[in-house]
Amino acid sequence: MSGRSLFQKYNIILRIFELTSKLIPKFVFNLFWFICDNSESKPCLLLRYLYLKKYIKNCGENIFIGKGVVLKNSRKLSIGSNVSIHAYSYVDAIGGITIGDNVSIANHTSLISFEHTWENTEIPIKYNNTKKGSIKVSDDVWIGCGCRILSNVTIHERCIVAAGAVLNKDTKSNTLMGGVPARDLKQI
């Protein structure tokens, strides 16, 4: 049975869990996340979904967060419906990240909404300021495994980012992007 079918079948139960989860303090949720971090069992997937419903900016329905996924600065993260973020991906939303509906983000992918600067030569580069920049992933997007999506990027509708790509510029709709740095490979 697909995730969407399960979500529809158990929608009322999910709503009850969602209401009940509002009583759980964040440190307890964080502890549960840590305990379930290496599992994709249904209870662990449910726990991660309830965490998103409570702690991110906007949250749709039927969201899959795989094992080992790191979510930083989640209050600036918006996720639509029917979204999957697969195992060991890294999402830092300090600059703001919006993910539309029907999006699949494959394993080991990073979405990083900031970049380091190096202008201040008086201190090591690692201590220089960072610049925030938003990331927007539109509806109907597939991001392959091991991609790096950098700040100030919009991935337009019905776009595929090929495995291993480093995306540092906006895409066009209906395009397959690939390479380092990513470029248009073909229209789809």
Automatic annotation (TrEMBL):
One Gene Ontology CC term in the entry: cytosol
Alphabetized InterPro entries for the sequence: Hexapep, Hexapeptide_acetyltransf, Trimer_LpxA-like_sf
Pfam families to which the protein is assigned, alphabetical: Hexapep (PF00132)
Alphabetized PANTHER family for the sequence: ACETYLTRANSFERASE C18B11.09C-RELATED (PTHR23416:SF23), SIALIC ACID SYNTHASE-RELATED (PTHR23416)
Keyword Manganese: no
CDD domains: LbH_MAT_like
Family according to the record: Belongs to the transferase hexapeptide repeat family.
Protein's organism: Virgibacillus phasianinus
GO MF assignments: O-acyltransferase activity
Keywords of this entry: Transferase
Protein name: Acetyltransferase
